[in-house]
Each structure stands twice: as structure tokens, then as C-alpha cells.
Hints:
With about 110 residues, the protein is of the alpha+beta class.
Amino acid sequence: MKMSIKDLQLNEGLSQRIILVAAKFRKEVTSTVLWLLNYRVRVQCFRATPFAMGDELFLNIEQIIPTQDAEEFMVGMADKTQEAVEHKTQSKAIDNLRREFWTNVIQRTNQKTD
């Protein structure tokens, strides 16, 4: 079964991904990439190193972020971070609801004693 370019689908569904390729990455870029990974944005950084062997030119491509070994771990950490953010948001909403409830209780209690 031979596939053609027309059969190839990139970015299936609604997911997005970012692929960065460079000889060197600045610290600001790698920090930003790690931050994006914490928010489930699919980002990959590849280091491209050209070299020559005789008359031949070669390009070595190496994935540096996330490393192949750490990719699964980082996805798990991103999930935990996202869960913590969602939990904090829910906790804040519950705290606001409690505050509103008790404020109303105190106001009504004060009205009845007047």
C-alpha cells in the first residue's frame, strides 16, 4: 500500500504543536518551552548540527526538549499541574460561595435583632 502526500494528515483534530529547530537555544526559549509544556502545549525542540565527512554534508537532528526519556514524565507533571490549577480555581469558587452565604446569614440575623 503506497501512501501519497495527499493522504498525510498533520495536526489531526483540534490539537496544536510547535516544533523548534536550531543549532543552539537561548535560555529564554527553553524556559518558555518548559512553561508551555506545563500547560499541555505540545512543544518540541530539536538541535540541528551540521557536519562534513569528506565531500559529503550531513545534518544530525537531536530532540532535546522534551528528551525522549522524560517526555512521558513531563506529560504526567503537566497533568498534575493542570489538576492543581483546576482544584485551586474550584476551591476559590467554593470559598467565595461560603463567604457570600455567611455574609447573607449575618445580615439577616442583624436585621431580625433590630
